[in-house]
Amino acid sequence: MNEWQVTTVLSQFRHSTSARSLRLGLAEPFHGLPGQHIDIRLTAEDGYSTARTYSLSDVRETRTIEVTIERADDGEVSPYLVDVVEVGEPLEVTRAHGGWFTWDERDPRPVQLIAGGSGLAPLMAMIRSREVSAPMVPFGLVYSLRSPDRVLFADELRQLMHRGRMPVHLAHTREAPADDPRPAGRLGGGELAEITMSPDRDPTVFICGPNGFVEQCAAAMVAAGHQPGRIRTERFG
Q1: Residues 160, 153 contacting (CB under 8 angstroms)
Q2: Could you tell me where the DSSP H helices lie in 58-173?
């Protein structure tokens, strides 16, 4: 049974017209693991309540956490979190949960991240934690998104690339930047094999995104020679 606590929205960052990150101050501190998620509950004046699960995008501190939400136009919770809630207002949340789709900073093996859309959120928690606690562990990211105006964490990803901290491959599926040598289109299995770590390096592969995207990428990685047991997936939709 979930135990709820009231948090306070400390700050917000808008990534696009449909997505933003909220940093929440915790009344009861906890340590979340990179890749875990929390439930957020909204309660109306008439007593009706509903909750949804959102991945943590930053778990480096114990007194604050960050969630990154993309609006689902038919959703009951995400439109409020993206467009309505303001800094200083309360939100009810659970403690972090989920244990399979997590990265252990003590594991020295390479890590290959593959994100589709807002599936970047839990992978960003892994990237940020790695920079603090295990900067020598090799990481790589493939990030599939519809168009340049939908990118999440654009400045951080740019800095990671410019500083040579990790290879980052952006794959725009519907509209690509004018200077992008890659034309817009979905990731194919052959392309994914070329831009991800070789199975000879035995990386842990984390894939997060919409259902179909995750299934396609997981199958492509197995076809490329990665062991199924080394592939961890989280999906939505």
Answers
A1: no
A2: 78-83, 120-133, 154-162
Chain mean position to CA 172? 17
> What contacts 30, CB < 8 A, 6 or more positions away?
62, 95, 96
User: H or E segment at 232?
Assistant: strand 231-236
14-50 confidence digits (pLDDT tens) = 999 999 999 999 999 999 999 999 999 999 889 899 9
Q: How far apart are CA 121 and CA 189, in angstroms?
A: 23
Cα–Cα distance measured from residue 206 to residue 102, given in angstroms and rounded to the nearest whole number: 9
On whether the pTM is more than 0.85, the answer is: yes
Tell me the two tokens of residue 157. Answer: 């990803």
Length of the chain, in residues: 237
pLDDT single digits (tens) 146-177: 999 999 999 999 999 999 999 999 999 999 99
DSSP string, 19-78: EEEEEEE-SS---PPTT-EEEEEEE-TTS-EEEEEEEEEE-S-SSEEEEEEE--TT-SSH
Reading the block at residue 13, the tokens are 């960052």
Where is 14: in which H helix or E strand? strand 5-16
Tokens encoding 140? 């790589």
The angle subtended at Cα 95 by Cα 213 and Cα 209, nearest 5°, is 5
Token pair 């990534």 is at which residue? 15
Q: Which domains does the chain have, with CATH numbers?
A: 5-93 (2.40.30.10), 111-236 (3.40.50.80)
Backbone angles phi, psi at 201, to 5 degrees: -85, -5
